[in-house]
Amino acid sequence: MLNKEHCSTLGLAHAILQDPGLSAKILRVVNSVAYGARGEPVSTISRAIVLIGFECVREIATGLLLIQHLTRGKPNNQVVHDNLRRAPQESADRQ
Length: 95
What we know:
Elements: H1 9-17, H2 20-30, H3 45-52, H4 54-71, H5 78-94
InterPro entries: HDOD, RNase_Y/CdgJ
Protein name: HDOD domain-containing protein
Pfam family, one: HDOD
């Protein structure tokens, strides 16, 4: 769903909400300093989409899913996992 070109905002929110862990991670990223955390924390995926944009949330979700896939069941790859987790944050810092 996340890689379809014509995914709607509601479709994106619905797809993300199917995975509570992914939802929590996206909200953590959106509420980080890198995305200009505003006074009130963002508490819903739909609000995150409105605030930082459809494409940005889709890219965050895709990146987090990729990290999850690459590091699943591989405890010896903690360094890789840590570097991949930091990459989206560092990319946002450069923008």
